């Protein structure tokens, strides 16, 4: 009986007393102890009548138990659907209903909000808090610490990750066992991870970066992680002496560089710093190198594709580039209109193909056809070029996307909420440079009649949208700039407000 993902990531560690998770309370969870927890959780899921192909939605704080739910799902062939802890009840409603989740696991503080949704969609509900307690764990306690592994094929689904779209409607990216495993295998070798590695893990585990890139690679190589609930530069520096490597979004690096305790000596023993999920400014690269003498390794990925390109481990890591196509991944630059491959050096849409590329969007065959070509190439919506040395450079986005601190925000989602408020004729949301988050959303609002009540817009955003999506500024304008076709010129707005957060004099 086989289950490729479980067999590669988890099964080799059964019975091994090797360190896996170093925790904030000073304790260390071994691989074996982790797998015992996972087996008990798996037993509890099966007792709730979940079986292979069912979905478990999970919105909980980061903890070893939350990661053990992932392991349990893989072992039992259940599709794992992690959700950003910032999502509001109104956002969750869509994910739970759309995925048809049979079980929702949430923080106890969210249970009352989620219960009516679960009741309507006939999902069961269990709790798990940030310290690893809750009704899920109560049910798991009576389960055996060893459990059977459900047979799966590499093509079977392992996870759904929801990613927002241009229309404001999120899409469930269906990821197979092979998508996850092939990428973890490539990254482990490309970045030279071994069992001697200790990774500083401060990313959330509900997105590709923290879950699949960081955790899968570390499970595959047999190393350990300093598993922190969230990013805090003091905590990072406290644990850096025992670590060999870190993965983070650019905000991690700018915040570390702003910290007095981050010195050449503090980083001297570190083998590797990796960045991704959002563009890293060349200045950050240079500042990092002049402080530490080390070059950050930047790579490029997406929810739908896992990782596509990476700067090399050995060899030049070029600032402002995301490196080469990973082994087994094809990358080409295409004409946005015709889809024809462009000559080297020209700017176009980045398309990628490989075992890492997802199977499609859940219950959205049309969206899948629009973005995933029949020959297997996925149209990323990122604009890029390949330089003379073969390095891929991301120069912009063809898609109307804002990335704030590594989180994606589609303007449409915010515009829909703002447009619904009284006194609003229309609105346009754009991303402008932000010193901490890289980019932040600004809402430009055109008044209707007596005009809008800004407090009302703010509170509507608070009810409907996760905090990270809230516009950091609301600007009232008589009319939106439009081109001759009547299309809103977002570029003009981005230009007008580009120094809103970075101009220290204002
Ligand atoms: C938190 N806030 C954010 C935010 N994160 N606002 C905008 N953008 C964000 N990313 C809110 C908080 O709720 C808080 O609200 C306020 O902003 C300030 O909080 P903070 O304490 O400064 O933020 P912090 O909790 O430290 O979080 C910042 C962060 C975090 C950058 C550390 O966002 C983070 O870990 N980001 C990583 C995201 C990630 O993993 N992305 C990978 C996606 S996968 P208030 O109410 O206090 O004002 C992917 C594919 C790939 O993209 O290639 O990897
Ligand atoms: P997500 O949908 O959250 O997986 O975000 C994927 C998007 O993040 C990509 O399409 C890119 O726009 C962006 N991204 C990821 N890594 C990088 C990077 N190293 N540089 C620039 N953009 C990146």
Written description of the protein model:
A hairpin with a 5-residue loop joins strand 1 and strand 2 (28-30). The model has no long low-confidence stretch (mean pLDDT 96). Among the domains are: 31-152, 3-Layer(aba) Sandwich (Rossmann fold), CATH 3.40.50.980; 402-496, GMP Synthetase, Chain A, domain 3, CATH 3.30.300.30. It has a nine-stranded mixed β-sheet with strand order 2-1-10-9-11-12-13-14-15, sandwiched between helices. A four-stranded parallel β-sheet has the order 4-3-5-6, sandwiched between helices. The protein is of the alpha/beta class and 506 residues long. It has 16 helices and 25 strands. Helix 4 (89-99) runs parallel beside helix 5 (111-121) and helix 7 crosses helix 8 (208-221). The structure holds malonyl-coenzyme A and adenosine monophosphate.
Strand order of the largest sheet: 2-1-10-9-11-12-13-14-15
The CATH topology of the domain at 31-152 comes to Rossmann fold
Contiguous helical run count: 16
Q: Report the major sheet.
A: 9 strands, mixed
Please, what is the oligomeric state? Answer: single chain
Helix content: 25-40%
CATH architecture tag of the domain at 31-152 = 3-Layer(aba) Sandwich
Q: Strand-residue fraction? A: 15-25%
The CATH class designation of the domain at 31-152 is: Alpha Beta
Extract low-pLDDT stretches. none
* Class based on secondary structure composition and strand pairing: alpha/beta
């Amino acid at each position: 009986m086989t289950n490729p993902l479980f067999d590669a990531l988890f099964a080799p560690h059964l019975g091994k007393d090797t360190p896996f998770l170093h925790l904030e309370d000073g304790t260390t969870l071994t691989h074996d102890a982790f797998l015992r927890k996972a087996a008990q959780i798996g037993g509890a899921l099966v007792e709730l009548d979940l079986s292979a192909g069912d979905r478990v939605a999970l919105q909980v704080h980061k903890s070893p138990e939350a990661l053990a739910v992932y392991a349990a799902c893989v072992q039992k062939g259940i599709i794992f659907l992690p959700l950003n802890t910032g999502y509001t009840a109104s956002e969750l409603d869509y994910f739970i209903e759309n995925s048809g989740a049979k079980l929702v696991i949430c923080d106890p503080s969210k249970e009352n909000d989620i219960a009516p949704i679960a009741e309507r969609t006939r999902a069961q509900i269990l709790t798990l808090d940030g310290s690893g307690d809750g009704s899920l764990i109560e049910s798991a306690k009576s389960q055996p610490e060893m459990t059977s592994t459900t047979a799966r094929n590499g093509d079977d689904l392992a996870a759904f990750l929801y990613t927002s779209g241009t229309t404001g409607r999120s899409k469930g990216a269906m990821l197979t066992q092979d998508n996850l495993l092939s990428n973890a295998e490539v990254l482990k070798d490309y970045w030279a991870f071994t069992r001697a590695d200790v990774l500083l893990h401060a990313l959330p585990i509900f997105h590709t970066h923290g879950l699949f890139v960081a955790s899968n690679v570390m499970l595959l190589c047999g190393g350990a992680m300093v598993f922190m609930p969230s990013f805090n530069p003091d905590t990072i520096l406290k644990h850096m002496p025992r670590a060999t490597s870190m993965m983070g979004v650019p905000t991690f690096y700018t915040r570390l560089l702003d910290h007095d305790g981050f010195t050449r000596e503090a980083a001297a023993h570190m083998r590797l710093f990796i960045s991704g999920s959002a563009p890293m400014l060349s200045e950050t690269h240079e500042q990092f190198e002049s402080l530490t003498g080390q070059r950050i390794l930047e790579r490029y990925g997406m929810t739908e594709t896992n990782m596509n390109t990476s700067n090399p481990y050995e060899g030049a890591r070029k600032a402002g580039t995301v490196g080469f196509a990973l082994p087994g991944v094809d990358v080409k630059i295409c004409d946005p209109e015709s889809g024809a491959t462009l000559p080297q050096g020209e700017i176009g849409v980045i398309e990628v193909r490989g075992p890492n590329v997802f199977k499609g969007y859940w219950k959205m065959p049309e969206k899948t056809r629009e973005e995933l070509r029949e020959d297997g190439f996925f149209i990323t919506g990122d604009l890029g070029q390949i330089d003379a040395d073969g390095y891929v450079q991301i120069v912009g986005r063809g898609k109307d996307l804002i990335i704030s601190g590594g989180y994606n925000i589609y303007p449409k989602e915010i515009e829909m909420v703002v447009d619904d408020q009284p006194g609003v004729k229309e609105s346009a949301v754009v991303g402008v440079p932000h010193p901490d988050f890289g980019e932040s959303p600004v809402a430009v609002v055109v008044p209707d009649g007596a005009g809008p009540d800004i407090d009302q817009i703010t509170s509507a955003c608070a009810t409907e949208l996760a905090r990270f999506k809230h516009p950091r500024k609301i600007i009232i304008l008589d009319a939106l700039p439009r081109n001759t076709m009547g299309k809103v010129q977002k570029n003009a707005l981005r230009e007008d407000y580009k120094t809103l957060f970075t101009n220290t004099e204002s």
